[in-house]
Amino acid sequence: MTPRRTAIFRPDPFIVALLIAALLGFVAPAVGWFATVVDLLKTAAITLLFFLQGVRLQRAAVIAGMTHWKLQFLTLACTFVLFPLTGVALHAVLPHALGDSLWAGVLFLCALPSTVQSSIAFTSVARGNVSAAICAATVSNLLGIVLTPLLVAVLLNMHASASPLEQIRAITEELLVPFVLGQAASRWLRPWALRHPGLLAITDRGSIVLVVYAAFSAAVVAGTWSRVHWSDVLILLGISAGVLALALAVTRAASRMAGFGIEDEIATVFCGSKKSLATGVPMANVLFSGAVVGLVILPVMIFHQFQLVACAYLARRYADRPLPAENHLESDARVSL
C-alpha cells in the first residue's frame, strides 16, 4: 500500500480531539460554577461558529450552482427523504436493538442537513462540480434550520413542552441569526478569513470539541451513561456503515440515471450522502434536554468518522480518473500504433 493510500486511513485529528473531549467529560465532568462557565462558553462558541460560516460563504458561487436544479433537488431528496425513511425502516425492523435515547440519536442523525466544508473539500479533491457542491451543501444547511426540527418531531413523535415552531425559533436565534450577520459582514471580513484558514479551522473545530465536552459531561452528571453497553456501540457502528453505504450507492445510481456527467455525480455523491456534525451538535443542544444530548450525538460522531474515511477513499478514486486531455492523447497513441 502506497503512502498516499495509507494516509486515507490515518485517524482524523478532529475525531481524536472529539474522543479526548468525550473522555474528559467522563473523568472530569463540569459541575457547579464550572458547569455554568462551560455553558456560557458553549453558547458563545456556537454563535462564533455560525457567524464565521456566514463570513466565508461565497454568494456568487452559490448563485451559479443554483442553476443546476436537478442536482440540487436530488441532493435534498437524499438528505431529507432517503435518510429519514431509512432511519424509520431501521427502527421498525430493530426496535429493541438500542435504547430510546440512542434510537433518538440515530433518527436525529437521519434528519440532519449535509455538511458544508468537507462536502466542498472532497468534491474539490475529486475534481467535481465545486460551485454546485457549495450551493447544495449551503442550501441543505439553511433548509435544515427549519426541516430538521420538523423531521425530528415527526420521527420521534415528540410531545415536549416546546413545539417544533418554538424549536425552530430557538434554532433561528442561536444559529441562523449569527450566520446572517456573518453574511452581512463578509464584505469586510471575508478577505481576512481567506488569509487565515488555519485559524478559522481551529475556531470551528474547537467550538464543536467544547460542545461535545459539555454534552458528555452533562450526561455523566445526570447518570445517563449507565444505560449504555458496549454492544450498543457495536450496533451503532453497523448501522452507521450500512446507512452510509446505502446513501453512497443511491446517490451514485440516481446521478447516473439522471444523466449527470462525472463532475455533477461527484457533487451529488458527496453532498447527498453526508451529515453535518458541525450543525448537528448545536442543534441537539436546542432540541434535546441536557441529560440525553451526549447519547443523541454519539451516533452523529460515529457516522461522521465513517463518512470521512469512506469519502476520502472515494475522492481519491475519482481524482485518479484520466483527464479528458489524457484520454485524447491515449487515443492518438493507439491510432499511431
How is this structure best described in words?
The chain is an all-alpha fold and 337 residues long. The protein has one domain (3-319): Na+/H+ antiporter like fold (Up-down Bundle). It is built from 15 helices and no strands. It has helices at 3-8, 13-27, 32-56, 59-65, 69-93, 100-111, 117-125, 130-156, 164-195, 197-221, 230-257, 262-272, 277-287, 293-319, 324-336. α7 packs antiparallel against α12. The two termini are 34 Å apart.
The CATH topology corresponds to Na+/H+ antiporter like fold
On the 0 to 100 scale, the average pLDDT is 81
Shape: globular
- Integer tally of domains: 1
Beta-strand content bin = under 5%
Distance between the termini: 34 Å
Low-confidence stretches: 1-9, 326-337
What would CATH call the class? Mainly Alpha
The major pleated sheet works out as:
none
What are its keywords?
single chain; 337 residues; 15 helices; disordered N terminus; disordered C terminus
Outline:
The protein is globular. The protein has 15 helices and no strands. The chain is mostly helical and 337 residues long.
Secondary-structure map:
Blueprint: H1 3-8, H2 13-27, H3 32-56, H4 59-65, H5 69-93, H6 100-111, H7 117-125, H8 130-156, H9 164-195, H10 197-221, H11 230-257, H12 262-272, H13 277-287, H14 293-319, H15 324-336
Helix pairs in contact: 2-10, 3-9, 3-10, 4-8, 5-6, 5-8, 5-11, 5-12, 6-8, 6-14, 7-8, 7-12, 7-14, 8-9, 8-12, 9-13, 10-13, 10-14, 11-12, 11-14, 13-14
